[in-house]
Amino acid sequence: MFTLQRIETSTQEIKKSRFLAIAGAIEDEQSAKAFLAAHSDSTANHNCWAWRIGQTYRFSDDGEPSGTAGKPILAAIDGQSLDRVAVVVTRWFGGVLLGSGGLIRAYGGTAALCLRAAEKVELVDTQRATIACDFADLALIKARLAARGVAVVGETFTDTGAVLTAEMRKDIAAEILVLVTDLSRGKAFASLED
C-alpha cells in the first residue's frame, strides 16, 4: 500500500464542464474532514469526494446522481493501491449534460489522472519498543539498531545505563528484541509497546 508524498492537483475540461481534482495524504477521519473543507470550492456546482484509511472509507456525490461521482473517485484511489488518501473533485458545470456514464468517467478519470501524477511513498507499519540496557552495552546496541534501520526516538539515562525508545518496521520487531537480548548477553530488557 502507498500514500501520497504531497498534495497533487489535475484539471480536465469535458464538454465545457471544468473538473479539478485535489488529492492528499490524511492520517485519520479528522484530517480527512479538514482536507475536504480546505479544498472544496463554494463557488463550484459540485465538490465530490472520497477518502480511504485502511478498511474505513467515505464518499459523497454532492448533488450529482447517486453513484456517479464519489464511488468512481474511491475506485480511483483503490485502483492505485492507495491508503490514507483523500481526493476532492470539483466541477464547474458548463451547460452540457454528461449522463451517468459520462459523469462516472469524468469524476473517476479526473481523480485517476491526479493520482497517477502524484508522487507516492510506501506505507510501512511500525512498532515501538522500550529497551533498557547497561552503559557497557549501549553503544553496541545503538550501532546495531541503526544498522538494521531502527530509529532511536527517545533516550533517558539511569544510574547504570539507558532506556531507549526505538521505532522499527513491525515485521522485524520480534527479531530486534532477540538481537538486543543476544548483544547484551541477556542483561538488557526489551519489550514492544502496544
Automatic annotation (TrEMBL):
Phylogenetic placement of the source organism: Bacteria, Pseudomonadati, Pseudomonadota, Alphaproteobacteria, Hyphomicrobiales
Protein species of origin: Sinorhizobium mexicanum
UniProt superkingdom: Bacteria
PROSITE patterns xrefs: UPF0029 (PS00910)
Name of this protein: YigZ family protein
Gene Ontology molecular functions: guanyl ribonucleotide binding; ribonucleoside triphosphate phosphatase activity
Gene Ontology CC terms: cytoplasm
Family under the similarity heading: Belongs to the IMPACT family.
InterPro entries: EFG_III/V, Impact, Impact_N, Impact_N_sf, Ribosomal_Su5_D2-typ_SF, UPF0029_Impact_C, UPF0029_Impact_CS
GO biological process: regulation of translational initiation
A Pfam family per the record: DUF1949
